[in-house]
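Notes from the pairing session

We agreed to fold both candidates in a single pass and log them together. This is the raw record for the first candidate, unedited. Please don't reformat it; downstream parsing expects exactly this layout.

Candidate A
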Amino acid sequence: MIRQIYEKNGGNDMMDQLVIGILAHVDAGKTTLTEAMLYTSGQLRKLGRVDHGDAFLDTDEQERRRGITIFSKQALLPLPTAEVTILDTPGHVDFSGEMERTLQVLDGAVLVVSAAAGVQAHTLTVWRLLRQWGIPVFLFVNKMDAPGVDRAALLAQLREKLDGGCVDFSAGEESLWEEAATGSEAALGEYLDTGRLSRDTLCRLIARREIFPCWFGSALKLQGVEELLTGLEEYAPRPAYPAEFSARVFKISRDGQGQRLTFLKVTGGVLHVKDVLTGTSAGEAWEEKADQLRRYSGEKFKSLEEAPAGTVCAVTGLTRTFPGQGLGAAEDAPPPSLTPALSYRLYLPEEVDPALAMGKLRQLEEEDPLLRLLWNERLREIHVQLMGEIQLEILRELIERRFGWAVTFGTGSIVYRETIANTVEGVGHYEPLRHYAEVRLLLEPGERGSGLAFRSLCPEDDLDRSWQRLILTHLMEKPHLGVLTGSPITDMRITLTAGRGHLKHTEGGDFRQATYRAVRQ
């Protein structure tokens, strides 16, 4: 068993570090599977249950009461030759933004599909995002103990709706090799020559997303869980990391004492306690010290002196970080493809000043970028944009718990988006006294659902690279509004084609104004 193997090899500090996300449509049994994996590997002495409110990773009071995952959590899962950080993500569509933010730090993913429900609409959304990020996927078909389920029909559905490369890894080796050999010409040649496929070949096919291993079982009854763990041990990709320090921020939260936590994955080099980190937020450079490194597993954490590449940890002392931010040599992640669907006006108690409340509520927006707060200065109104009504209920409870305000919300309305039908150029010119900047942008229509993409084709002889990066930062830092309904723009590629500054009179804020004007024009 995995548990017995680890007890023989425990304490090995040289094990590979892997980050695996657990993703699913709501009610597929994702948290139950995570619980079963931790129990089977010996990390839990008692098997908790979501419906009993005692699951190891459902640490929030609202999660225990509602029986759903709201916030992504991490747990440490040691395997014989690798230490896995599991990121358990929400399955409810209202909290899919929390799920999407974890994708940028995953080495692989376990996608859980309910045998009773099959591939659902949200399953397809998750699959599209996994494809977009190029993440290798292992599938676990859960609840096989439900009456009337047909294993062959489920596998056929996975191949039809997800990918033809879904391969039953719980079948015999010969059957597995034969199915996997169709993943690539090289693999087919190896199979025809030798009658088998090597472990290295299978690993390569999985890493390249040419095949997707599938296991079948029941997480609640611990059926198929050990086989899944063995599969992760054998076939999960082992990333190679550069020596230069880099890290990617994927989550901002606060601990029980209100201390701000920056969750990140070290993607190169080593992060030490008291290291000075630098970055840019809202166009302004900052420099802050990593006061403490915490490695969480459930509610508990262990303080680290250093975090080598592959480690997921929470850092205290950072006040300017944001999800998707790259630190060190890492670049910022592209903007999320999921966007809020509904808008509500927020009503505060009469004694609470809206302007002051807005400053405090920004904490929540910082923790969940898909929760967007809009301030109407003229009317002194606060509006919130979010994913759905369940999130609205959670938000109401969260505001009362954290700030003590009993808030209400108005009638919801749909959040619309605007795009363009044809390619167009926009020019932004900013030249008040002792200031100067000019920006030229090319806006091209993109595919439906592709979001916004940004790039620069401006020669560095015309505009210094630092100014170009600043302009791209200004493009990404806020929603830009269209001209039809004033709704945020989407589904287009914006290219910086030219720009001009002045050696004496140009400041960073000048390019912000010129960039905004170019988009509007």
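Candidate B (folded immediately after A)
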Amino acid sequence: MLVLYAFLRSIKSTLIIGLSIPISVISTFTLLYFSKLTLNMMTLGGLSLGVGMLVDNSIVVLENIFLHRESGEDVHLAAELGANEVGEAITASTLTTIAVFLPIVYVSGIAGELFKTMGLTITFSLLMSLLVALTLIPMLSSKQRKTVHLSSQNTNNVPAGAKKTKSKGFFAFIMQEYSYLIDWSLRHRGIVVIMAIVILVVSFSLLSLVGAEFFPAIDQGNFNINISLPVGTNFDVTKEITREIEQVIISIPEIKSTFTTIGSGGTMGMGSSANNATIMATLLEKDKRDRKSSEIIAELRERIGEYPDTEIHFSEQNLSFTSGSPLTINITGDTIEELDFIARSIVSILSEVEGVYDLQSSVEEVRPELHIAIDREKVNLFGLSAGQVASSVQDALLGKVAGYFQEGGERYDITVRLEKSDYDELQELENLIISSSYGLQIPLKEIAEVKVGIGPQGINRENQQRQVTITGNISGRFLGNVIRDCKEKLDLLVLPDGYLYAFAGEQQEMVKSFRELFYALILSLCLVYMIIAAQFESLLFPFAVILSVPFAFIGVIVALMLTGTSLNVLSLIGLIMLGGIVVNNAIVLIDYINQ
């Protein structure tokens, strides 16, 4: 309203347009109610984004009515003529903006789920603002007392714009200079077109310098440090190293508190993960620190350094709409051994890429286990099969349901298995008796070799092929730039036949969302063209409007570069919105020029 008053120089006129905002917003709530949409981050975001566009239609109508009043017309006639002259133009411009947001409703994936409600909210608010601009604004304008008094001398010879800006020094200067610029541009059309095209080409060539990511990182003020030592490491050793790292973290002034967990499950020192620890750090509030969490993590990486046989991984607690790490690569193939070798090779290659940290392979996540290698010749000799041996070992260690016990309407399984003390030592397990179909009692060590080893936490499959996943964090660079560098290095890697790798996770969702939003932009421009063609009853005028859209992106690319902002899903939504705004201005301008 302050901006409006600076241009209109009238409190009454400013209040008239100011009334259109709450009326349009409250009317939008009604449509949200019948559409079964709630007030949430996206619908309120749509309303706040739509507020700026709500007054567009009202400003155009009021400005035109004001122009007629300055020319000496009666207030009622000025309100009627002013609204009629621009009625078709603002209707077309509002419909084109709606056409820009309508395709977002059909975008799939996370981007579609997030921005579908926003698009609907903006659509509802624009429809209400159009209704207000064509009805309420002219009515309120007609109730104003005439405050503009013009001299009867030379009224017909003085342009309306000159009368309007006569007393406004700054605006008069701007309008005068603008008229000179327009005059020069119309006399040098070829130069203007060539300059515009050159600037457009140069701007798009700079697009590669703009980083890309799925969603911009949001500093949540939390991060974790995961510490992993070799399997079998004593609890006290893990605690000692964790304490040292914890002291380094506490020495950072921005750290508010830490919470440390060492091992999980089992008794102290005897749990299966006594070699693992997690430190959860909470930072001071944003207004009490000068650095971002990513900058603090970068300093900690340098100060902590490396410990022998210890893996230290940082994970920043960002608001994310995807699961997993920012950098995720899936490798598929037949054998775990070959997949492990490929994974180690890729980890080694990617560790040289700037901005990539905390690389790890799912194969590295191992646990201690017993390996029982069956001698098939001996098994057959004793009248057994490998399946029978495996079943006997499983029944002895894990138990077998032998029957049921019922009491009070409840049924309980009766599980028969060995006492833990009977197989707590490797030697005792080797003496486990296996019964053969020949009536023989054979110790397990006679037909199989039992030894302690390590194995993966789990074996993942996709499309019936084994899969190993490599994950990593990205810091100091945008995801798109890092992925581009990773692909350049991995293109030199030659994989065996039947083995493939593919980027997944955030990168996969980013590519999908970018593609969907790009299609939405193309579809919206097609809808805009059809609406404008119907409005002007011409196939040529719409091209003049549509061609103005790419030139608006010049400022976008320059702004992204100067501010260090990435091209992400939010940026693309802004681009689509910008297309509607540019089209609005062009429609009103061309329609008024025609009149």
